[in-house]
Amino acid sequence: QVQLVESGGGLVQAGGSLRLSCAASGSIVSINHMAWYRQAPGKQRDLVALITGAGSTKYADSVKGQFTISRDNAKNTVYLQMNGLKPEDTAVYYCNAGLLITPTYRYLELWGQGTLVTVSS
Predict the structure, then answer these.
(1) Before 103, cis peptide (omega within 30)?
(2) What angle do CA 70, 76, 81 make, to 5 degrees?
(3) 35, 15, 10: which is closest to 99 by C-alpha?
(4) Distance from the CA of 67 to the CA of which of 15, 40, 96, 99 falls in 20 to 30 A?
(5) Do the beta carbons of residue 67 and residue 81 sit within 8 Å?
């Protein structure tokens, strides 16, 4: 069974930092993109940051210069370093990845279960 497992969420004061992790496990041939999305209460789920298999990155305008996405291909893990957190960053953060799996060599788009980040003012 292929899955994404997130960790690192929690409660932090404004101006603080958190590091989210998301590990992919299972019968994986390769991982294409890995990304973080977030969903605040009553709002849609939006892209926060994405990193391709080649290491290219894309960020939402609202987090540029504040968040950094990275990945460790040997560990099938993606990270999101969040600095200078603001109350408006409060949301459930979801990991997303595009994976090629064995034995079918089927392409899957997977989501993690989500991890809550709460930033207090």
Answers:
(1) yes
(2) 25
(3) 35
(4) 99
(5) yes
